[in-house]
Design a protein that fits this description.
binds fe (ii) ion, 2 domains, about 350 residues, eight-stranded antiparallel β-sheet, binds FE2/S2 (inorganic) cluster, single chain, six-stranded antiparallel β-sheet, alpha+beta, Naphthalene 1,2-dioxygenase Alpha Subunit, Chain A, domain 1, Rieske Iron-sulfur Protein
Length: about 350
């Protein structure tokens, strides 16, 4: 697969946070097109292409009138299905005058986000684990990468880069052997790590207990979601879920929900450290992926070389190819052991 593949696999993609969508329509770029997202008077959320059929004005510059989105130029009004309902200068149903409809996306509001259906996904949107559960604290980050979804999801599930890109912050090279078990799932694959070093880094110093086993699982959920989970015997538990929306083939909007359970009442204090730290670390990835993408553009279409240390890379590529209708991923329930050094 070319790292610059322009096609977007079918799926439920996040367009924006539900909070960002007020009474005004919102301009959102996703899957290579521009959309006007709007919430009608009855609360239904829809997305239509941001281009009036009449003279091409941006509908996101218009306003919501009842169940319709009205163009600011001559007032044509569209339903959430992209059909013209009203042409103010003509009597009758607008659809009688203009039979073509704008491309539109079915939308669902879930977990504080607006999801749009692109193509025919196999299932409903993936839900954010532990979000809103009693005893859990969550916060949200929105990050723009100048890189494709493939590069983003692999980066979020890739341990070896952390000793270089996040040295001192998240991981510091210790040259210690780490065991990993990769298990294929019905909708992706996961890697569980054992004996992981967690010394000499700000994240572990602040956010983990000094002693005790850590359970660490990285999970890919096809076609565009990652979950990274750390759990400690004393009850501390962190889940970082990232959902990637392609803006274009080489630009991605990542919506991350970080949920954690900490000692009673300490959630706000943990968050006070955790949130700026997470933003700092993700910006390190933004800079690396921006530079990687810029270099891929100089060398288009070249294949990648991999080693077993790219534990989930092959599964991610196989699942994303499958989501585009090519090939088959490995069947669920297969287990593979990998030894690496971190
Ligand atoms: S351009 Fe939209 S109504 Fe004329
Ligand atoms: Fe990273």
């Amino acid at each position: 697969m070319s790292p610059l593949d322009a096609r977007h696999p079918p799926g439920w993609y996040i367009l924006c946070t539900a909070r960002a969508l007020g009474r005004k329509p919102l301009a959102v770029q996703a899957a290579g097109r521009h959309w006007a997202v709007f919430r009608s008077a009855s609360g239904a959320v829809s997305a239509v292409e941001d281009r009036c059929l009449h003279r091409g004005m941006a509908l996101s510059a218009g306003k919501v009138c009842g169940e319709h989105l009205q163009c600011p130029y001559h007032g044509w009004a569209y339903g959430g299905d992209g059909r013209v309902r009203i042409v103010p200068a003509m009597k009758g149903d607008g659809h009688d005058w203009v039979s073509t409809a704008l491309p539109s996306l079915e939308c669902r509001e879930l977990d504080g986000y607006v999801f749009a259906r692109i193509g025919e996904p196999a299932g409903p949107p993936h839900r954010f684990k532990h979000l809103g559960e009693p005893g859990w604290t969550s916060f949200h980050m929105a990050t723009r990468f100048q890189a494709g979804v493939d590069a983003c999801v692999e980066n979020f599930l890739d341990c070896p880069h952390a000793t270089f890109v996040h040295r001192g912050w998240f991981r510091t090279p210790t040259a210690k052997p780490v065991r990993c078990t990769v298990t294929t799932l019905a909708d992706g694959a996961q890697a569980e790590f054992f004996d992981e070093p967690r010394e000499k880094s700000v994240v572990w110093w602040l956010l983990s207990p000094r002693r005790g086993e850590m359970r660490h699982v990285d999970r890919f959920i096809s076609p565009h979601t990652t979950e990274v989970e750390y759990e400690f015997p004393n009850g501390l538990h962190y889940v970082i879920t990232s959902s990637c929306t392609p803006i274009t083939a080489t630009k991605t909007q990542v919506h991350t929900v970080i949920s954690f359970r900490s000692w009673r009442g300490l959630g706000p204090l943990v968050r006070a450290f955790f949130e700026p730290l997470s933003r700092h670390i993700i910006q390190q990835d933004v800079r690396m992926l921006d530079a990687q993408q810029a270099n891929l553009a100089r060398h288009p279409g070249r294949p990648f070389a991999s080693t077993p240390a790219d534990v989930l890379g092959g599964h991610i590529q196989a699942w994303r190819r499958f989501a585009r209708g090519e090939g088959e991923p490995v069947a669920a329930g297969q287990v593979q052991h990998v030894d690496l050094v971190l």
